[in-house]
Amino acid sequence: MATGTCAALLEVRALTERLCATLTPEDSAVQAMDDASPTKWHLAHTTWFIETFALPRLCRDYQPVDPRFGYLFNSYYEALGPRHERPKRGLLTRPSLREVADYRQRVDAVLAEAGRDLDEETARVLVLALNHEQQHQELILTDIKYLFGQNPLRPAYREARALPAASSPAPVRWMPQDAGLQWIGAKEGRGLDDFVFDNECPRHRVFVEPHALASRPVTCGEYRDFIVDGGYETPTLWLSDGWSAVQSNGWHAPLYWRRAGDSFLLTTLEGERPVADDEPVCHVSYYEADAFARWAGAHLPTEEEWELAAREVPVEGNLLDSDVLHPRPAPSFSSSARPAQLFGDVWEWTRSAYLPYSGFRPFEGAFGEYNGKFMMNQMVLRGGSCFTPQSHLRATYRNFFPPGARWQMSGIRLARDLS
Amino acid sequence: MATGTCAALLEVRALTERLCATLTPEDSAVQAMDDASPTKWHLAHTTWFIETFALPRLCRDYQPVDPRFGYLFNSYYEALGPRHERPKRGLLTRPSLREVADYRQRVDAVLAEAGRDLDEETARVLVLALNHEQQHQELILTDIKYLFGQNPLRPAYREARALPAASSPAPVRWMPQDAGLQWIGAKEGRGLDDFVFDNECPRHRVFVEPHALASRPVTCGEYRDFIVDGGYETPTLWLSDGWSAVQSNGWHAPLYWRRAGDSFLLTTLEGERPVADDEPVCHVSYYEADAFARWAGAHLPTEEEWELAAREVPVEGNLLDSDVLHPRPAPSFSSSARPAQLFGDVWEWTRSAYLPYSGFRPFEGAFGEYNGKFMMNQMVLRGGSCFTPQSHLRATYRNFFPPGARWQMSGIRLARDLS
Amino acid sequence: MATGTCAALLEVRALTERLCATLTPEDSAVQAMDDASPTKWHLAHTTWFIETFALPRLCRDYQPVDPRFGYLFNSYYEALGPRHERPKRGLLTRPSLREVADYRQRVDAVLAEAGRDLDEETARVLVLALNHEQQHQELILTDIKYLFGQNPLRPAYREARALPAASSPAPVRWMPQDAGLQWIGAKEGRGLDDFVFDNECPRHRVFVEPHALASRPVTCGEYRDFIVDGGYETPTLWLSDGWSAVQSNGWHAPLYWRRAGDSFLLTTLEGERPVADDEPVCHVSYYEADAFARWAGAHLPTEEEWELAAREVPVEGNLLDSDVLHPRPAPSFSSSARPAQLFGDVWEWTRSAYLPYSGFRPFEGAFGEYNGKFMMNQMVLRGGSCFTPQSHLRATYRNFFPPGARWQMSGIRLARDLS
Amino acid sequence: MATGTCAALLEVRALTERLCATLTPEDSAVQAMDDASPTKWHLAHTTWFIETFALPRLCRDYQPVDPRFGYLFNSYYEALGPRHERPKRGLLTRPSLREVADYRQRVDAVLAEAGRDLDEETARVLVLALNHEQQHQELILTDIKYLFGQNPLRPAYREARALPAASSPAPVRWMPQDAGLQWIGAKEGRGLDDFVFDNECPRHRVFVEPHALASRPVTCGEYRDFIVDGGYETPTLWLSDGWSAVQSNGWHAPLYWRRAGDSFLLTTLEGERPVADDEPVCHVSYYEADAFARWAGAHLPTEEEWELAAREVPVEGNLLDSDVLHPRPAPSFSSSARPAQLFGDVWEWTRSAYLPYSGFRPFEGAFGEYNGKFMMNQMVLRGGSCFTPQSHLRATYRNFFPPGARWQMSGIRLARDLS
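The joint structure predicted for all components is written out below.
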């Protein structure tokens, strides 16, 4: 029986499968756009990751389940050779979902057999695989949401659940934060309890100007005011590339908002229903977050500002573990001196480009391609969303997407200079 | 119990389902390219066609199974209102394959209940639906072949079957054909036994120059000679648009040919295996057919020339009913004065543009969009293929595809002037 | 002093230069779109054509003016080797317009020196060069019109000239034409007086159904009725590819029509002014001509029908020699039994695809690429326009453009079946 | 007679015209790619800038030379209304080069008449216009170089000039730089002597890690070693987006390098000649600079690191004022403790994204669009090039281009961590 790291990994993988339980084979096979992957591909890719990097360490003379899977399920590791083109993942109707389930079981069986005495590097690989699996849990949900969002039938991922009524969140307060010379980033760690990605390191000093953060994320109601005020028709509110994106894509509201007379409907994992004013706005691009901030007389925080605010806050909130699968309104009253909802609900765009910290060293070997090579043309998001597993997050965690991406659970927190 | 036209339609529809029996739900859901459709979509669309055009005639107060299906499964009938974008058919993971099977059964149940006494227009609609269903049978096979052909695993649609060995076909003979003023085309007919499409009408006269047709289609071995002789590197053999297609698509052989050392492998519905020299070459574009003909010192026949040769020939051969699902070599010996393999094996490109015959009148109403609006930028193919149902074909039948299309069962028959 | 063929060619070339007299060096250098060429390129290309094909025959040991010009000014002759990419002709700011003028003079000087005793093949080449030069005269005008039409300043190619007022054309009459078995096409001829292109040959028989032609082309006023009646918003009037073109290009009127309140302005070579209802409509694509015909309850003629009507009509009318440079209204009264304006004013779209006649043989050698390789994806136009030199035209002349082209002087004549 | 600011501006504008003296009207009219502009457009746009922003302040009731020029020559100021599409600037053959020269003269005449007593805001506008004119001087040269570089004749902008032979530069030394908490950026200033752009402000503190800079930029010889070592074929050396750019653009060397047997030719403003090993490499994208650095075991400096090294260095070197118009080799010997060639020769890519400094405030009014809205998807370059006017530069100056841009004078300086 697996214990320790292997057991933890198997537990995470069991959750992956529970997340897919409502999906049909058809749902699992289709690629909704180039940037998304089929569920089945996610299920196979995370398995291939373990099979390729960990099983040969656990099992002398390990023979891959199918030697052709490396070509099909390698995502982007150039060091491992050629692979199936990303935009064509949806053409892989074979292996079938059932065969992929078998593949998962066979790899899990090896993990289940593994003893407790792992050498340090093997343990590290398994911990990385666990975190990798968790990242794909979030991607499975965002990608399936995108697929269903394009189906005129607006299928639901699951039936709607009753939630306690939330009263309206309090107006935004501006909360001054720590400034001056500060430490941010993380010390290296690859264990089950101290794991961090290479892109969070090294711990280093930054000089931060006096500033305040908004007490909570921007709500749908506030964002609608921006729309009604002509936000999407006012070029001077936008970055030049953002205005081009508005025009070429015909953006007039966040992704998944559909105009219905004077109001808007919203596609959620539980189907389509009216936009709820009190919920944090979600599925906006960086360009929209930035334009909203300019309209509101504020700006987005830097990733350092965000991290300093979060470093003393417990990693709690509306995360995947809550099983709500949608952002929730902020509390109607809070005496806290700390911003609410830093963790969970929506990823928060920062105005920091995703670049290496000074002194950044990529993971060794093929893992060096995990993060470092994507450090261009992307912006940092912080804090996790209602699709992010709690154990996956921390204050130093850096997520990143191109500024035009909208299908992730991306929202807005405002900041202001104090000087 | 259904009789007559309804029974015939139900029988055809039962074959459609048998053709899909080996496909998984995943196979049925994916769209392999913009020009192809998912199997599931074909299954639903043909059903929607009957439900929309025929059931209200058979059944007073007929209520559609799902009123939203019109939006999803209308192919291109502008007269029936807006519809789901063609390149996004693969996003429709719902309704599921099972739900589509239910849809088919519910519509078939109405057909099965229908009495024998159909008014003439209802009978016409059902006959059209039957022919429409047959066209989609061929498309289901070509589209699934294309999907599997892009999967690096090269899945087989079915297990390979043993076939009697064929001896090598005789060399091509040039067979002089009827010339002068000739009648071609068909008289209108909408019954089960005399049905023709509007694009085959009216019967009319053409003047045909003296010419000869090749005794059989071009074989893979002959086509390989063209490749080896530098056919794909010699611009003066090609139409200007054809040469552009060669260069921008990197064509160097027919679709589904894959170079393996000095020889070629071929993807078939029974998996990948070596190219067989004696089989008719298939999956060539018009551009390739035309370039081959020029290289061979010949040209392609006009559609009139083809039709005149075929009008006295029985509609027999390697058609869908043979269940071979691949072109077969021509007979090694034939004393016939008629060209072999005019029907079946491969569709034969003609050098005729797909245009209306003088006096062409489209079908009435929405059916007018069936054929007429596609009469531009396409070339006529004649004779059916090993994917075409025998009862669907006739000498006057006009198929049509753009000159760059390669995923259909398209081959080459040569012609020569005699003057 | 040049005589005979050389003299005729020099005279044509002198006209080319007069046509360019009002253009600045900037005007001459710019390429308005991929399908158009800079004036300077036309001037150089026609010169290169003579230099390459004729001068080595006229002049032993002829040395090219600049050996690099072959790469720059070869249009599409694969047999002559690689060449500058077509869409990049506008990048060739050097050689300058002045240098190109020098190039022309140096080549013309050789022509001027040539004696009268040309061998037959040399004479043929010069006659072809003369016809080639004339084709580029028309292209120079259409391409510069397109360039000016995209300049918000709407520059005029020349000052507006006063023309005698025209009274309104008579309503269309339907004129029955010859039918039955008929000869069309041309006998081969390569002399100054009997030159025809290879694509007009051979003379051959066709069977023509009873039909009538409209007594004159469609006018702007008639075309506006189509617009006002919702022609551009009614998909069932259009070919499928035509409707796609309407939507993707945002067509709502012919090229060069600009809405101004309730009426339309028109860009001409003499600047922008209101659309004149009585003039033939011009700058419509095949798709628009076809949709208009369907709306009008008619169709376009075949090229054979057009040619039979024109074969007894003198080649006269509003051609380049009239120096009007814009279509003129049809006569207000005519007792003629023949359709008016068959020659000149506007090229008339036919519903015939541009394909080889049975028995077509391309010119020998590199000239074989002149016409034959473009016989795909294009439609035939007949009759010349107000930009076409009179001596260049004849009843058998076949012009051709893709069905979406609008920058040529293309208009509409309707036809009707009589049966 | 103009004095002070107006006189300075007129002097700068006179240089603009001298820079264009060798260009033909054709050269001036053509747009070599979407990102470049025709010379004539640069000449008119800088004039429009003065006419729009300054002349109404200098001249009561100023009437624009042509009210339509605002539409044609507004670059990107949304606040000033709609404008001609950027990729179509090359279609504006009218106004002609001569008319644009007249336009410049008429605007200059107003400047020449202006008195010395300008109000402060007017003076600021003129100073901005002067700096703006200087930026377009560099763009005129880079854009014309790009145009000539695509002409197979490789025309020269001017005749080659003899330069004193340079001996080979010394090997790179690594020079430790200031670290810790440091001030960078500029205080606001809008006068002739203290002008800075808004994007250089405010002056602020950053924390800098210990590091060393290379004593000189990377040379062509060093870059060729990277090529020979397979740099362009080794994906793991590249950012993911960089590797995509290599593959989709077919990059195998810097822009303007053309392989000739075993060596490379280089296009310069003085025509094509062999690559000189000792010169700084130029016309590389950020992706290439970054890949080279990784191959060399180093990285690119941050913009702060660059600025700290440059702040005590005089703004001298191979700048536009040297009139060399090409990068020169570094000195063969230097005892300086400071890196050579920080200013001039080539712009140096930094690994800093072009983002607002904390506390950034855009210029007021329409000038707010000058810099701020481009702060996305671009990287910072520092130090000017041999095309940059000396009086335009300073240590705090931030240039910016997308990471894939190669037509600017962009080179590489390496940095290393010291810790």
